[in-house]
């Protein structure tokens, strides 16, 4: 369906996916699927479906009860802080309500948004989008049926907002600057403001999980639903995983074939076909994400770059394009700082490499050679190292690069995010692949030279032959244990925690409860006199429970999920020839991954704030880098581990380099070829954009002056006769006689000839 | 001046460069510089300056006098052909007039265009440009001061056209399809229509040459003048050569330094700095040509792709974007054909390689080893080979690839041109560099192994040591002789011809003249009764002379000029370390080149048809390829010819590969770094485009409904109170009291704490 341009060219197509993708099959229950407003055709028009009693966001306001300095002073500080927050919300024309948090020293500020405010924000955003070149139907800007504040039932804007759009708009109101009419609240910048979070729509979540656990493949509608509920950023993640999952089938099948047919799995043809797969996959994803961006109407949305509230700059200058004042820093300064961070990052990476190296060497030694006392116990030391030591170290590393990235002075959140992600990726790259590279390129070729020295340290060890098997074991170890550990930490651990924590809390915060419950009652009483959120007591109780539970969860971090996938892609692309079943394992893993991520988001993390995105950001580039590296690894492996290769000859390094040189050029060539082939195949989104653009302009032209575009030369005949130029040309003769004169010349020629 | 965005943001800035760039200093003569209408402020408004008596184009109509088949039949064919042409011109509402050509069997159809027609075409083109996304001032489309057919003196369109724009428009009328109101004339497709040519503006040419021969540097105004006279395509060539000329100063200076300080000119640092130069140059040119495109208002103009009149396709389908019918061919077919041409091109290249190889080996043998009879004469054989044999062979090659390119089925002229140029470039590449590569990578490393065998063929030779010197000699030979030969063939030869030909002609075509002169007179007579082009007899005579002379010239071929420059760039980028003075020579050559090209265009070729272009097309990519190759050459040379390298060790090939591998990665890294650095530096054209786009859209918004873009939240206050959402929130309390309630909670906490 996505392959048909017509199907999606509709005004508001990006607001009404239900038009784009037919409503899913499960849309047979008493209520619309996932309860997303977009599908709520049966809901009465004048009352938009209200979720969570109209509470859109919860601002967690956390303050210290006891501190070093004077209590009253602190209390005053807190009160001031809160009052500031309250005024901000009032100015932004948002409803708000305050509840006692579960823990001591937390207030939960429940925020809601009036339809009118939301509508205004929506219009403003539409205009801005249009100005920035984000595809917007012109009808969207010019309500043809007159008055544009029309909130009547007929207006799509009344019931048209998906939850994602609604929440995204409100989040903009909350965070955008005051002169833009926003509340300008940002966590950690405003005093005591700990975080801003939307509340889960339990109905949707239940349905979501139940649907996905039932069906084999995630289809377009499912993605649309996610997009309508969690926003494009999350939707893109799931779209990517699904796309990747499907593409994995190819290497999985190929791998099984090779595994059972070839003794030497490093056959050149297999390596090359894997290379081709890698390139084609990345190229096709480029196209796919373009398609999605068009279908979801978020193309170019990254052009509206949210300014970092942290970024101050040396001075403010008017923005070149929009003319708004914005902080400015000279280019040289930025270049300098970025240049300087490189070595700093390298330092961090080096530190990490040392750690990984140590753990690896330890493991190697214990597994392969060590035969001394405590062998049994020591055998598990390395795994512990991988599971505990390395993660903590990477933690330190990420803190370090966060500092660096802040120091780099990024104007926009996009660019900050990009640079931060890249630095993080380096760490994950090292942790995941370093030991494999080490085995393949150092340990195996040179291991046998080193072994003898072990005797000198008179370490008792049984001399094993260093061989390819070792590499395979390590890879399997990573893929299998890695994925299991990942699953445990993602799913089982949080489940255990969520089960254990309350009991712990009970004990710890008994006193608080006795108090807070009292105050709660007091609160409820006065909320009965002047009604608080209009709820029955038990509703109130449930809602309070929900609030406490969700504020207790931590925020959803999409990066870890992406990292997991991209690293996995690395194993498949770079190391498949070492163990052809890699892809197969990943297929299995990803099928689970897709569902477990769904569960994770629903149950173990706060609801993510819906954000717009037009692609998966830096991850594509990382995968491209990996594909390039895969040409190196596979090329070198194909030579190094070829049965005929004598690893002890002195030519090995040079021939290896040759192999690499060769395969790199092969890679470059293949990519060029594949890209040019794909480029010849027309892509519908591309056409559609051009077409829409053309249409918009044509409309404009016709509005402004219709006759411009179609001038018929006929209208000019009479003008020509008394045209300024005419006097240079024979007036007497019409074209016929002129032609005759010429023909006379021709005939002369022939006569005289 | 180009670096200041404000300076160029004006309506019509691309039509009135005189606004953009101040009129040149030489604008002190009695008439505006180069007599370009754009500067003709003093000219009376109602009479646009008329050049060549209002003759815009000359269509050369050439027909055979005698042929195998029946004369009358042929005559009829010719007459029909001409009548067809005449009707086409009449329908297109163009003036035309016929003259007897100098040679037998040629008619010169002089074509002129009425202002009104021109104006209509202009409007149509503007609209189309706008629809295709070529930056057009909206004022340009909506003449604010009412009626748009206004040809009054005040209208800029009356005297606003530069010669280039005028001619380009008329050319469009001549060539565009009939249903688009054009004449649909295309040489070689229409019977007997040999070519279409504009006439030189001798005034402009005189001034142009005299100015350039006087001044050292070509500045922006000069380029603007060229652009206004010959169109962007030619202007871009000169802009490029000038830009390249300036950038050459760096390696020239560096080269001289190295030449006089280092004994071993292949020092790694020099090579690397040359690499950096190459990368930076190409990157900066990208930016420069973008700047020019914006300044000249031709950005995106390549989007309007002229359909190949030759391209028919399997069937016609409506164009996806504009909805016009256009020929269509399925993608797979195109891919297949392009894939198939590759080996065919390879074949041609191989053939060429053999020829070049032979000539080279011959030269090598004769220069180095041959001591037999006729040594003196044989010594010059190779040079003759280079000057005569190879050019002819490349001629054959280019015919071959032309066939192939036609077979590839290209929809647009752009794509045809691109693919053809690339294939031609391959040939020039081989001819220019092959022998150098051969010497560097085969002859020098392995030469000494081969020499002994010469004895077996008992060829008498004196054994020379094979060394670096040989490579240098060859390079110098190419650069110096190459450039001299080039100059001779470009300048001296045609001069000689132009001097010699008339005399030859006189003899050959005496008979014709006697006839044609008679008919001419006859023509003049009847043109006096019904006035032909309104000229005095002597004017008429001059004009006839001019016509005969210019029709006698051949068309200007811009590719040869580009090839020359890019190949030269190759010598500098790839081989500077071999002979550091390369760049210096090129600087000298290019200074002359710039001027001699000017002379060539003015004197030795027909006036080129003005075409729009937004960049130098495929040549940029070719240069990038060359820079990549330079990393290979310099890397390998740095190792191969290093004093310490023993060329007889068996490691040589492998170490060479290592060197290449290394330098290639160095290249990739450097390019990434340089690109990212440049990207951080803001570029004004980029900003300007965004800004203009933003402005246009803002205008539209305000036209359509002004209040959209700026909604003040203040207007909403009253709505909020009876907002649908309000009922979920406590109505009784205003925000203050709500805040107080919260503060009570805080205080409780502190009390209880």
From TrEMBL, chains A, B:
Any one GO molecular function term: chloride channel activity
Cleaved signal peptide residues: none
TM segment ranges: 235-260, 266-285, 340-365, 377-397, 424-444, 475-496, 625-642, 654-674
Gene Ontology CC annotation, any one: cortical endoplasmic reticulum
Membrane-topology annotation of the record: Multi-pass membrane protein
Main subcellular location of this protein, as a coarse class: membrane
Keywords attached to this entry: Membrane, Transmembrane, Transmembrane helix
Coiled-coil intervals, chain numbering: none
Pfam families: Anoctamin, Anoctamin_N
Domain annotation Anoctamin transmembrane: ranges: 226-692
Region of interest (Disordered), residue spans: 24-47
Start and end residues of each Anoctamin alpha-beta plait domain: 54-190
Subcellular location: Membrane
Name listed for the protein in its UniProt record: Anoctamin dimerisation domain-containing protein
Naturally occurring in which organism (per UniProt): Absidia glauca
């Amino acid at each position: 369906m996505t392959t048909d341009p017509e199907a999606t060219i509709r005004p508001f197509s990006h607001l009404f996916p239900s038009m784009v993708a037919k409503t899913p099959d499960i849309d047979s229950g008493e209520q619309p699927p996932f309860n997303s407003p977009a599908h709520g055709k049966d809901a009465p028009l004048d009352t938009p479906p209200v979720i969570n009693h109209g509470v859109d966001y919860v601002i967690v306001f956390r303050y210290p009860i006891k501190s070093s300095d004077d209590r009253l002073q602190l209390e005053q500080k807190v009160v001031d802080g809160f009052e500031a927050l309250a005024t901000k919300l009032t100015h932004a024309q948002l409803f708000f309500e305050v509840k006692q948090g579960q823990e001591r020293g937390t207030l939960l500020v429940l925020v809601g948004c009036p339809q009118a405010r939301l509508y205004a924000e929506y219009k403003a955003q539409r205009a801005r989008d249009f100005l920035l070149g984000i595809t917007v139907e012109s009808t969207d800007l010019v309500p043809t049926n007159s008055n544009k504040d029309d909130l009547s039932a007929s207006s799509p804007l009344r019931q048209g907002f998906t939850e994602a759009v609604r929440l995204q708009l409100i989040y903009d109101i909350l965070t955008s600057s005051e002169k833009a009419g926003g509340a300008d609240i940002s966590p950690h910048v405003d005093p005591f403001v700990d975080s801003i979070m939307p509340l889960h729509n339990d109905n949707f979540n239940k349905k979501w999980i139940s649907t996905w656990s039932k069906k084999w493949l995630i289809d377009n509608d499912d993605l649309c639903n996610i997009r309508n509920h969690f926003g494009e950023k999350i939707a893109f993640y799931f779209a990517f995983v699904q796309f990747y999952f499907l593409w994995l089938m190819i290497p999985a099948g190929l791998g099984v074939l090779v595994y059972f047919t070839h003794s030497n799995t490093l056959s050149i043809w297999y390596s090359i076909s894997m290379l081709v797969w890698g390139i084609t996959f990345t190229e096709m994803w480029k196209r796919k994400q373009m398609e999605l961006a068009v279908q979801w109407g978020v193309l170019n949305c990254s052009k509206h770059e949210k300014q970092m509230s942290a970024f101050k700059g040396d001075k403010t200058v008017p923005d070149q394009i929009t003319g708004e004042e914005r902080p400015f820093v000279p280019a040289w300064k930025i270049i300098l700082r970025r240049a300087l961070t490189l070595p700093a990052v390298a330092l961090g990476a080096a530190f990490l490499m040392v750690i990984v190296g140590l753990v690896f060497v330890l493991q190697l030694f214990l597994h392969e050679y060590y035969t001394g006392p405590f062998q049994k116990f020591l055998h598990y030391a390395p795994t512990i190292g991988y599971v505990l030591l390395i993660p903590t170290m990477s933690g330190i590393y990420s803190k370090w690069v966060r500092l660096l990235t802040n120091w780099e002075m990024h104007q926009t959140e996009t660019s900050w995010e990009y640079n931060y992600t890249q630095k993080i990726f380096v760490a994950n790259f090292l942790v995941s692949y370093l030991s494999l590279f080490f085995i393949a390129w150092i340990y195996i070729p040179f291991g046998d030279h080193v072994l003898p020295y072990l005797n000198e340290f008179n370490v008792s060890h049984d001399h094993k032959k260093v061989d390819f098997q070792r590499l395979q074991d390590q890879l399997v170890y990573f893929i299998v244990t890695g994925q299991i550990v990942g699953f445990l930490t993602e799913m089982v651990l949080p489940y255990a925690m969520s089960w254990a924590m309350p009991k712990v809390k009970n004990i710890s915060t008994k006193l608080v409860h006795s108090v807070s419950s009292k105050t709660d009652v007091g609160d409820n009483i006065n909320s009965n006199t002047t009604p608080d959120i209009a709820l029955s007591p038990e509703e109130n109780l449930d809602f309070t429970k929900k609030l406490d539970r969700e504020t207790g969860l931590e925020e959803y971090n999409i990066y870890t999920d992406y990292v997991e996938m991209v690293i996995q892609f690395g194993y498949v692309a770079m190391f498949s020839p070492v163990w052809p079943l890699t892809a197969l394992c990943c297929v299995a893993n990803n099928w689970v991954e897709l569902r477990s991520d769904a569960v994770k988001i629903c149950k173990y993390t706060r609801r993510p704030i819906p954000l717009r995105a037009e692609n998966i950001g830096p991850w594509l580039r990382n995968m491209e880098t990996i594909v390039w590296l895969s040409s190196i690894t596979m090329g070198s492996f194909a030579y190094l581990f070829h049965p005929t290769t004598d690893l002890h000859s002195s030519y090995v390094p040079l021939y290896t380099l040759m192999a690499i040189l060769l395969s790199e050029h092969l890679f470059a060539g293949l990519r060029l070829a594949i890209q040019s082939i794909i480029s010849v195949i027309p892509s519908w989104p591309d056409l559609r954009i051009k077409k829409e653009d053309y249409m918009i302009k044509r409309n404009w032209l016709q509005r402004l002056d219709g006759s411009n575009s179609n001038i018929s030369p006929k209208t000019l005949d009479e003008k020509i006769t008394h045209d300024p130029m005419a006097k240079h040309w024979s007036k007497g003769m019409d074209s016929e006689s002129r032609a005759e004169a010429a023909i006379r010349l021709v005939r002369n020629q022939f006569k005289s000839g």
